[in-house]
Structures are given as C-alpha cells and as structure tokens.
Amino acid sequence: MKKIGFIDYFLDEWHAEKYPDWIExxxxxxxxxxxxxxxxxxxxxxxxxEWCRKKGIELLDSIxxxxxxxxxxxxxxxxxxxxxxxxxxxxLQSGKPTYIDKTFAPDLASAVRMFELAAAHxxxxxxxxxxxxxxxxxxxxxxxxxxxxxxxxxKFETYSIHQxxxxxxLMGTEVQRLMWTGTEKTPSLLIGYKDGRQAAVxxxxxxxxxxxxxxxGNDQAKLLKIESNFFGVFIENLVTFFESGVPAVSQAxxxxxxxxxxxxxxxxxxxxxxxxxx
Length: 278
Fold this sequence. Notes:
By secondary structure, this protein is an alpha/beta fold.
C-alpha cells in the first residue's frame, strides 16, 4: 500500500474530508491517506488533532515529517492559495509526486516559482480544478469554438478557477486581454483571445449551477449544465498521476490560468477597460 500525506492550512475542510475515502476507493485500496499536517487550528472548526482522530489519520507536527512518511503528497488549502507556496516548499523539493489543490497560486510569479522549484528537484507536480474533468466538457467538440459564456457560484478569488480552467482547456492559452464587467456582488470577466475569440466568466451566487453556453461562430450553439460526477473522474486522474508521475495538466495551461486570475482581480479596479496580459 502506498501512503499519502495531506498538508493543509487547516484540516477540517471539505476537500480534506472527502478525498481520503475517494482515493482509497479509486485505487482499490492500494493508496491510503495515512498522515497529515495542519498549519493552524481554525476557530469554529475541529482542531487538527480532533479531525485526525475522527478520520483515523495520524497528525504529524511538521511538513517535513509528512514528506518523510509519505509516498505521495497532497497540498490542500483550497480556499487559501496564498499559503500554497509555503506549504508546498518541502514537498516540491522531495522528488515525490505532489498534487496542489485549486487554486494553484494567487499570482503568476508564485506559480512560476513553484514550477521552477519542482523542476529543479525532479518533483512531478500538477494542479487543477476538478471541473476540468466534467464529462460535459470532455465530450464537447473543441474545434471551431468562437465564444463561451460560462456561469457558476462563488467568489472570484476562490471559485473563478472552476470556470477559467475549463475555458482554457477548451479554447487554449493564447489570451491577450481581459475586461471586468461585473458588479461587487456578481463578478464577471471577459477574456479576449489574440484571434478575436472571447469567453465570459460569470459568478452569480451560491444558487447558480455550473453552466456553459458554447458558440461555434454561426447559429450553432450548445448549452451545457454540469451534472456529471466530475470529482470522481478527477480522483481517478489523481490516482493515475501518483502511479505514473506524469502531470495530467500542462504547465502552460496552469500558468495561463494563474495569470488570468491575477489580472482579473486587477481588472476589477478599472471596470469596462481592457487590461492587456503581458
């Protein structure tokens, strides 16, 4: 059995709660989360010690200890990506396959540094939104897409990844400019490609389902409502990554997503003006 170590900002969160059972099942019992580290105890949540006792996972007192006792590593902190670089520093020097949860990085510079650190130490590493693996996207014809209008829930800084990731996977990385078109409570971002194609990201609150309207440059359009088990497919891909050491998402796509999210937060300050990506 291969041992997986969790490294998190605090452990009592949804991803840490769900991933252990899903990974064990997807791997046929060949992989198991056996140890974990949490940086802080969060008020209103179980302490890291309480969470580990509940889950039957050993709580270790340092990231180094988790790295040493694990075959594979998962850096979580899904809603606090500003801690990813710090939490991932030792894992990315370990040479052990490391998955970093969404959102990968709060800015392009830290994303580049993490990739460079992993490359310098021969550490297989990748990050993704689970929405990338929705069957509705994977079954979609990609050639000829002219425009996308995407919808979903959440705040821009933590949930726009779930729309931007599929857009980049479907339309590519050649983004030229961005424009903020939303309000304070309903963030919206227009993504402009070098060849004139466009994609719109819209976050309409917690009750908004993930949806996407895709146009092929004529009267042909396709409306998608994401209802498939994308987390199940994501976990299967994660298990495959651990086994193979081959990242499932290209570095170019992950860096493009980081650049878009960073620039999108800057564009909010100057709405209805194009911001050119450098």
